[in-house]
Design a protein that fits this description.
This protein is an all-alpha fold and 82 residues long. The chain contains 2 helices and no strands.
Length: 82
């Protein structure tokens, strides 16, 4: 999955979680539909958080790679000076 796809998936999941939360808020707590609405909300939230976690893991990998590149560049620079 590329960055654009991940971003789109994150947006869709966030919208689904927001919509599911709105359904929970509109549903009377003592009604038969409340439990189903709450389950939908929890599932949407878990999906959203899973995508957030994947995005953060990818960002961490990029940052680690960037730090390694900077370390290599610094080491090359040091060798050139000495």
């Amino acid at each position: 999955m590329n960055d654009v796809q991940l971003s789109q998936e994150l947006e869709v999941a966030a919208r689904q979680a927001i919509a599911a939360r709105a359904r929970v808020d509109r549903t009377p707590a003592h009604s038969a539909a409340y439990q189903a609405a709450l389950i939908d909300y929890l599932q949407a939230t878990v999906l959203h958080l899973s995508i957030v976690s994947a995005a953060q893991a990818r960002q961490h990998e990029w940052l680690v790679a960037e730090v390694e590149d900077l370390k290599e560049a610094l080491e090359t620079e040091r060798r050139a000076v000495h």
